[in-house]
Amino acid sequence: MPRLKTFHLLILFALLFSCQNQGARNVSESSKELIESFRLLEKRVRDNFRAADSTMVFAEEMLDLAESIGQSQYLGIAYNTKASAFELKEQYDSAITNYEEAKDLLADSGDTTNLSVSLRGLGTCYLYLGLHDLSLQSYQEVLSITLNAQDKPSLSKAYSNVGMVLMEASIHEEARSYYQKAIDIALAENSISLELAPLSNLSLSYLKQERYDSAIYYASMVKQKSEEVDLQYGIAKSTYILSQSYSALGDLDRAYEEAQLGESIYENLKLERDARGQRYLMARILFKSNKFKEALSMVDETLEENSLEELNVDLLQIRADILEAQGKRTEALSAYKDYIEAFSLLNQRRNDQLIAQQQFRFDTELKNQQIQTLEAISQSQTDTIRRKNLLITLAVLGAVLISLLIYFIYRQRTIKALHKEMMARQKLASAQLNPHFIFNALGAIQELILQEEDPIKTSNYLARFSTLTRQMLNYTELDSISLQDELDFCRNYLDLQKLRFGDKFDYQFEGLENINLSDFSLPPLITQPLVENSLEHGFKNRLGSNKITIDIKCTASGLSLAIEDNGLGIERTRRENERTGKSKALELTKGRLKFWAKQTGKMATMEILDLSRLNIERSGTRVTLNLPAI
Questions:
Q1: What does the alpha-carbon distance between residue 606 and residue 559 come to, in Å, rounded to a whole number?
Q2: pLDDT tier at 9 (50, 70, 90 boundaries)?
Q3: Are 218 and 196 in contact (CB under 8 A)?
Q4: Would 536 be classed as within a structural domain?
């Protein structure tokens, strides 16, 4: 999403200040002067549309003038301007508050053009907050307004915006249908500038789905049409998609050429953030081309100190990968620690933001309901005063019915908000397992280096660890993954541990031949902490042949996934390590299954059995996950 930001803001402000509204008729000469001053400030905002501080200053001046003019239309435009300044500062909550104020004022004035600006702004802010349903609702309101107005250019932009929300929600086919509608209107209007935004988003949609030939086709069209009208920003935007697509297809020279062109254009346009993104692409391509020295130099040039933005964390990761590829194991280990620390902080911030977003929605809904409640009570009191004694009983009855209605509405909204907050907390709980696994792995790497083990073995361990970390980062953000992906991750993790422990343990999967693995979904990384418990606790100080068996079976209700080891057994492990108490991994897994059951409406359980209870001569633990068919 951050890489879409600059392009989307260009669209936002082009729409925000593209229309001039006619002032009220029969106003005094003084009012005309105020309106002229107001229009002049609008022009200054357009000329400085990316300068947040200047926009905020102009917005405050516009508010003062609008209050003097005394028309809700001008107040609405001023609040739109103030909201856009907050949006540039990425203060989306404040931006939403001002866009809502502008929306109410402009709805009263009948100014549908600037009302659309308010709704577009709300759609953008909700999109960056990850609230796709509210964003889609706002953009669909804009679409409804433009359909009624028969404003073809605005209609094209409205279709494109709806498509963008659907694309961010990974609904690509429907998103591309909206982009195509926007493109068709632009072609009918013979407007290249109108065609570029949906065309660029269309290529981005194919890139997200790894359909690189289609992405290259449409991005090349964007580049060609941008060159025809000398739109440098459009050219640079196309290079981002072309570079990634060529790189994925193995054409690294062409990929680097496109990335370098985009970086040069962004530098000339003084868009440093976009330029840094292009330099990151260049570093990735150099690394892929085994030009490690140049890649490392590019990364160090682009890195910003103490920054937790996603781009900086990506740069820290590729820096560690480069050092590892150069054989600088100690420096690579230090770089991986920096990356893991930054990733953990970024992940924590994302989870905090997710909880804050759900709290914001809850507070907003609660505030709206409180307003409705107060209005209902006020109306009830007014009716009671005006009615005669004969109507008092009916008025009381009406108040009771209204109160009951409000109560049920409040109850339903509260349950919905709490459910969403539970989802946020569950994602936070899931994320807590990641640092636990990562730091265990880093400790193992450090142990291999200090013991001066075979450097090839250490390098292989680092490479597998890097691959496994990337899988973990991808899966952590998802609500569920396929059984195939889960078992692939588990198998990669066990292979990694085989490098660490050698022949001290073995593993096998059973029952795979009877199951279509792509038919089942389950919470991501649900098996990893259970397998890790077997390795770290079940086999601790145990001699002999250690083995882990993962048995998958179809059941009447869904899927049974059993993880069994021949280790010490959970009861003996707990007795020998009393200060540890309950396993954190087991408790988190139980919590995740409980939430999964609530989310799907189907039973999901975990059973833990010490095998000595079945046969006193046996030892080990079996953990069985009973999951519904999803």
A1: 12
A2: very low
A3: no
A4: yes
| 534 and 573 belong to one structural domain | yes
Residue with tokens 């964390």: 313
Q: Which residue has the tokens 């897994």?
A: 589
State whether 465 and 565 are in the same domain: no
Residues 601 and 510 in one domain: yes
In this structure, the answer to whether residues 503 and 607 fall within a common structural domain is yes
CA proximity to 537, closest of 500, 503, 580, 495: 580
- Give the pair of three-digit tokens for residue 69: 């003019």
Give the domain-ending residue among 445, 477, 509: 477
The reply to whether 457 and 596 lie within a common domain is no
Beta bridge partners of 481: 522
The neighbour count for residue 66, using CB atoms within 10 Å, is 23
Instruction: Determine, yes or no, domain membership for 314.
Output: no
Contact (Cβ atoms closer than 8 angstroms) between residue 550 and residue 507 = yes
Query: Does one domain contain both 391 and 508?
Result: no
* Rounded-to-integer distance, Cα 630 and Cα 628, Å: 6
Indicate the number of domains in the chain.
2
Measured between alpha carbons, how far apart are the two ends of the chain, in Å?
29
Whether pLDDT at 7 is above 70: no
The residues facing 256 across adjacent strands are none
Q: How many CA atoms, within 13 angstroms, populate the side-chain half-sphere of residue 312?
A: 14
- pLDDT band at 222, cuts 50/70/90? very high
Q: What is the DSSP string of 357-391?
A: HHHHHHHHHHHHHHHHHHHHHHHHHHHHHHS-GGG
pLDDT at 4 over 60: no
Pick the closest to residue 325 from 208, 507, 466 (CA basis).
Answer: 466
Structural domain contains residue 505: yes
Residue 504 is classified by DSSP as: G
pTM of the model: 0.48
Can you give the CATH number for the domain in which 620 is found? 3.30.565.10
421 and 374 in a common domain: yes
Mean pLDDT of the chain: 81
Query: Is residue 296 over pLDDT 60?
Result: yes
Phi-psi region of 582 (alpha: psi -120 to 50; beta: other; left: phi over 0): beta
The answer on 345 and 460 residing in a single domain is yes
Is 49 within 8 Å of 81 (Cβ atoms)? Answer: no
**Sequence-distant (≥ 6) Cβ neighbours of residue 90 within 8 angstroms:** 128
Residue-number span of the structural domain to which 354 is assigned: 327-477
**Range scoring the smallest mean pLDDT among 51-65, 118-132, 396-410, 441-455:** 441-455
- For every residue of 125-174, DSSP letters joined together read HHHHTT-HHHHHHHHHHHHHHHHHHT-HHHHHHHHHHHHHHHHHTT-HHH
- Residue 250: Cβ within 10 Å count: 9
The domain boundary, picked from 431, 446, 477, lies at 477
Q: Which residues contact 231 (CB under 8 A, 6 or more apart)?
A: 193, 196
Provide the CA 468 distance to its chain's centre, in angstroms: 21
pLDDT at 457 over 60: yes
- Which of 349, 271, 284, 275 lies closest to 314, judged by CA? 284
Tokens 């300068």: give the residue. 51
In a domain, 38, yes or no: no
